[in-house]
């Protein structure tokens, strides 16, 4: 089984979620850079991302993360309603080939179920054609870096041995998630949120420019 992150790994949405998160935090007068947002928020459930970013910059007096999150959700829904998204080049063919080779394909994400399904609808990706299951932050108690989403996917796909699972994503927290689940292979990709140096810190099995070249790894 393979477990793939969505935005920045399988889907090109031009980092809209983190740009919107950046705007939502700055909107209340907190001066934070997009680089800080990407470093401390990438790959996480988005309320946790906001809390972690605020904790990193140590605002005094503290600001209300709930207020930022509520505003962020409205802003993101408005963005995604009109946003044109596309697959990372070569990834759609990869998904079809993996399933043809009887490898289970699971998409997992720190997005809500509503946003994740909106993206899949925009791509015309269909369950049991392009992927076997979608696991979102809404489906588990503990989001990344906890391994709950991977464990849920394994249970759903009847996979008992985590060493037969490959986890891939565009952020360090994807790699931590995969290692916490004891995945046999972890793969960082450079098509999304974080830099090679940031991903290298977690020592994934492989770092690829794009998920499209994953077939070379699997072979």
The sequence of SSEs as H and E is EEHHHHEHEHEHEHEHEH
Q: How would you characterize the largest beta sheet?
A: 6 strands, parallel
**Terminal Cα span:** 14 Å
Number of strands: 8
Overall 3D shape: globular
Biggest sheet, spatial arrangement of strands:
5-4-1-6-7-8
Count of DSSP H/I helices: 10
Describe what this molecule looks like in 3D.
The chain is of the alpha/beta class and 219 residues long. It is 46% helix and 13% strand. It contains ten helices and eight strands. The protein has helices at 16-27, 34-41, 46-57, 65-82, 91-100, 113-123, 148-157, 172-180, 196-200, 214-218; strands spanning 2-5, 11-12, 86-87, 105-109, 133-136, 166-169, 185-189, 206-208. Strands 5-4-1-6-7-8 form a six-stranded parallel beta sheet. Strands 2-3 form a two-stranded antiparallel ribbon. β6, α8 (172-180) and β7 form a beta-alpha-beta unit. The longest helix has 18 residues, at 65-82.
Please render the helix and strand layout as text:
Blueprint: E1 2-5, E2 11-12, H1 16-27, H2 34-41, H3 46-57, H4 65-82, E3 86-87, H5 91-100, E4 105-109, H6 113-123, E5 133-136, H7 148-157, E6 166-169, H8 172-180, E7 185-189, H9 196-200, E8 206-208, H10 214-218
Helix pairs in contact: 1-2, 1-4, 2-3, 3-4
Short overview:
This protein has helices at 16-27, 34-41, 46-57, 65-82, 91-100, 113-123, 148-157, 172-180, 196-200, 214-218; strands at 2-5, 11-12, 86-87, 105-109, 133-136, 166-169, 185-189, 206-208.
């Amino acid at each position: 089984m393979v477990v793939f992150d969505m935005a920045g790994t399988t889907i090109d949405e031009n980092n809209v979620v983190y740009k919107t998160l950046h705007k939502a935090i700055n909107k209340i007068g907190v001066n934070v850079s997009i680089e800080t947002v990407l470093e401390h928020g990438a790959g996480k459930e988005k309320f946790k991302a906001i809390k972690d970013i605020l904790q990193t910059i140590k605002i005094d007096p503290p600001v209300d993360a709930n207020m930022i999150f509520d505003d962020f959700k409205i802003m993101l829904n408005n963005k995604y309603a009109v946003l044109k998204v596309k697959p990372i080049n070569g990834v759609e063919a990869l998904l079809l080939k993996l399933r043809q080779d009887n490898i289970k394909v699971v998409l997992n994400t720190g997005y809500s179920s509503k946003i994740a399904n909106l993206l899949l609808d925009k791509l015309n990706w269909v369950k049991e054609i392009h992927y076997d299951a979608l696991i979102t932050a809404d489906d588990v108690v503990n989001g990344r870096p906890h391994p709950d989403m991977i464990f849920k996917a394994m249970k759903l796909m009847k996979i008992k041995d985590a060493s037969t699972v490959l986890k891939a994503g565009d952020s360090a927290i994807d790699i931590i998630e995969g290692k916490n689940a004891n995945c046999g292979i972890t793969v960082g990709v450079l098509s999304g949120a974080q830099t090679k140096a940031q991903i290298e810190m977690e020592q994934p099995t492989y770092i690829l420019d794009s998920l499209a070249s994953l077939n070379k790894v699997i072979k």
